[in-house]
Every structure is written in structure tokens, then in C-alpha cells.
């Protein structure tokens, strides 16, 4: 995006959960372990993406770095992009501890990352796109489209809502998070819906199609947790 555009959304300003805060980052892996298995999840995504050794991948919103580390074992190069310096520091520490050298970290986001290399074969993003309001999700997806090689794959997993029973499904998710992770996870889930920008599946699908993607598969767990595998269609 043109750096001159002063009305561009400031993606470095954290909304909802403050992932720039050291204390949030320190508890990230343990709090998320109460409701997800990050390593098993990463393996499932990597199997779905069917990466070849010669492939390169960009991850947006790389967070504490688990997926990037695992992806680095399956492909030539990983670009891990995140707006939080604290998350990037933690990821870099894990990477150096693991002796991995094919991950490049970028302090940037969906709207500001400039991909200066050849187009990549895959882009993945989990629980990050909802940080952007819908108009800016569209801008982000068009930028992602331009970073992918023809037929390149896009994996998105995020809080994405089916319209039917949306309110009931949100309440059920909040109760589930509270049951597995106590008050911390209840407040985390409540803040998500109150302050962040999760959207409907039909909005997401319109944005994906208009950004030049074909949806290969879709699932919405519990009416609230969406997963899309897409291909760059043009
Ligand atoms: C809920 S965490 C998800 C981290 C990781 N992908 C996971 O699945 O555990 C959201 C991450 O997205 C990052 N983020 C927020 N807005 C972003 C943006 N506009 N572009 C890229 N990353 C962003 C946050 O700093 C944070 O690290």
C-alpha cells in the first residue's frame, strides 16, 4: 500500500488483547494450551498445504512462533510477519534455540508487509485477520493475492460466524472457554467479541472471491470457528 495514504488503518495499534505487552506474550502458549494443541494444529495445516521442500511460505500474525517453526521443517523459507515486537522476540528466541535458520521475521502486518522476493506458494494465518475491520480485511486479502504464485494456497483460520444462531454460538463459545481456562479465558473470549472484528462467513467469502481466491474447502466449527483453504484463482 502507498505509504502516503495517511488514512490507512493503523494495524500496529493493538485492539482487544494487547499482544505488544510482555506479560500477555509470556502467558500466551500456556493459556492457549487450555483450548488448543498448537503443534497438532500446525501439523494439520501443513498437511493441508502440501508444501514441497522448494516452497516458500508467509505467515501473517505469527504470534509465539509455533507454526513458523514447524513450517520451517517442511519448506525452503518461511516469512513470519507480526505487528508485535514482543511476539517476534519470543519467536526469535525459540528459533535460535531450535537451531533453525530458514525463518525470516518481519515487524509488519497484513497492510504493511512488503514482499520483495519471488511470489510464495502458500500463505497461512490463524486467529489474526480478525484484528482488521472488514474493509481492511479486503485490502489485506488483495495484498496477499499479489504475494502468491499462480495457484498458490491461502489458509485462513479465525473466529468467523455463521449467521444462524450467531448470538447463541458466541455465548456457547464463551462458556466453553471459561470451562477450560477459567476467568482468564472467559474475559479473553468476551473481549474478542466486544472489541475485535470477527465477521460473518458470507462477508469473508465475498471478500475472498473479490480478492481473486477460489474457496477449495470451508468448515465452521460450532458456527464460530472458521477454516478456509483457498487457491489464488487468477
Ligand atoms: C491471537 S494471536 C494468534 C497467533 C498465532 N497465529 C496463533 O495461532 O497462535 C494474534 C497475533 O496476530 C498479531 N496481529 C494483530 N494484528 C495484526 C496485523 N494487522 N497483521 C499481522 N499480525 C497481526 C498479534 O500481534 C498476535 O501476535
The CATH topology comes to: Rossmann fold
Largest sheet: 8 strands, mixed
Low-pLDDT stretches are none
What is the general shape? globular
Please state the CA-atom Rg, rounded to the nearest Å. 17 Å
Number of domains: 1
CATH architecture: 3-Layer(aba) Sandwich
- Average per-residue pLDDT, rounded, comes to 96
- Distinct small molecules bound, one entry per kind: S-adenosylmethionine
Element-by-element helix/strand order: HHEHEHEEHEHEHEE
Helix content: 40-55%
CATH class: Alpha Beta
Count of alpha and pi helical runs: 7
- The number of strands is 8
The secondary-structure class comes to alpha/beta
Strand content: 15-25%
Look at the structure and name the CATH superfamily: Vaccinia Virus protein VP39
| Beginning-to-end CA distance, first to last residue | 20 Å
Domain Methyltransferase: 59-152
Keywords: Methyltransferase, Transferase
InterPro entries: Methyltransf_25, SAM-dependent_MTases_sf
Pfam families: Methyltransf_25
Briefly say what this structure is:
By secondary structure, this protein is α/β, with parallel strands linked by helices.
